[in-house]
Every structure is written in C-alpha cells, then in structure tokens.
Amino acid sequence: MHHTLLFTVISVLFWSSRVSGCEGDCIVDITRAFLGNYSTPVGGVLNDLATQISTSMLPVAARPQNPLTLLDPIIIAYNNVSYDSLETAIFPSFFHGKCERFSKDGKDPEGCPKPNCSVVCGTPGSMVHFYPILRYLAFANTRSVFVSLMKPGSDTFTQVQNLIDDAQRCSATTRMCKRRRRSIKFAAAMNANDDVSHHRWASRSPMDLGFSPATHGMGLSPRSSSTASDLGKILGQFGPMLEKACGGHANNDTNALQGCSWEMAMKAYILSFP
User: Fold this and answer.
1) Closest listed residue to residue 38, CA positions, set 83, 69, 101, 3
2) CB atoms inside a 10 Å sphere around CB 56
3) pTM for the predicted model, two decimal places
4) Do residues 160 and 70 touch, judged by C-beta distance below 8 A?
5) Residue 103 maps to a domain
C-alpha cells in the first residue's frame, strides 16, 4: 500500500482567501504550508535514519526493500499529531489577538494588518515582520514532535523496536515469515487509527515487510535491551540531523535555518490573506 503525505507543499497553495485577518482558513492553510514544506527535509533525515537501522541492525535477508517502512509507527503518529501541535505553537502561543490593541486611538498600528506590522499580533503583517520567529517556531515544533516520538520507552519507539526484534529473528524467505504475512494486515490495523492519512515517504506499509508491528497480546517478541540501545543511538541523531538539513543555526536570527526558510514564497503566501 502506498502512503500519502497528509500535507501539500507551498507551491500549490497560492489561492486568494476571504477571511478577516489570520483566522480560520488563514491559520489552517499557513500551518499546512509549513508542514508540507517540511516534508522534504524531514523525509531526507528519516530516510537516512531508516537506512542506518536497516544496514546496522538487520541481517541482509531481513532488510526491507524500502528501509523507511521500519519507521512507519513514528511517521503515522507524526501525521496524527503534527497539525494540532504546529498550529498551537504558531498561533495561540505567539501570533494572536488584534494589533489595534497596541494603539491608543483604537486604530491599527502602521503596517497592520499588513504588509509589515511591527507589533506581535495575529495578522499577516505581524507574521511577515517577525518571520524569523515564525520560521524558528515551525522548525522547533517539528523537531520536538519527532524527538518525543523517538524517545526510548515511548509507544512509537517500542513499536519500531519490536519491528526490528521480529525482523532479526525472521528471514523473509522462511516458512514462518510467509505464514506471518497472512496475519499482518489485521495486526497493522490494530496499531493505527482508522482516520490516519498515511505519509508519502514510505512506498510500502508494515504489512508488506514480512513481520508484524508491535501489538499487545499478538505474539510479541521479547524486547531486546541491545536493540533498544542501538535504536536509541540512531534515532537520537534526528534533532542534529534536521538542524543540519535546515542549514544550521537553530534560532530566530535573521539568517538562521536558511535551508528551511522558504521566506519569499511564504511571505507572499501569508500576505495573500486579508
């Protein structure tokens, strides 16, 4: 089964909007734009991590054709939580409220609601003026969500760990694994919410790998402490690797995170909202 990324990149998101200030569609679409933009750098990092896991932790016969499927539990969980997490980080937490509250005469400050508003509020002009902060909020939240999902002991970490433990015991050519394939579809369904929109990075789902995702009461392999340690070291690279992929300097300075800035396109898109 092919997976589809939940979000669309910015290049296809330029349409006129009819909302007052950044609310409703403005909030939703700007959040989705950043999520879509991050699919490329995040996808690259995840591919690198998955390849490390496959080549260093699995016997050749048990390595999946697409290593990224080993991280399906993490990627599916990310798709489930990433929108709400990023929207909260950008809007209620930082860009919110009417900019006219900063004016003594009740009028909007100069440049508000757009094109360039020097007070922090929930308007397009404010997001343009404070774009380095907006850019950093998107990066920091993306990093934080993945780091949390990859934390040793988390549900998603344990699911990936059990995928690896099973694969270490199971060659795709063995009779046992062939029998197991027939029961994987049900096991995978037990691990994912019915309304999940699958990611685009993986070409196949866990049910195609020849071993089952971790499920309680469905023949789990005993968890290996060595697997957990090795996996933790690999997944622990995510934060630094994403920062490197984004050009380094993970802060809200003007020239920070240039590989994950998309400044010109995003500013133009933000200003397309009233």
Assistant:
1) 83
2) 11
3) 0.76
4) yes
5) no
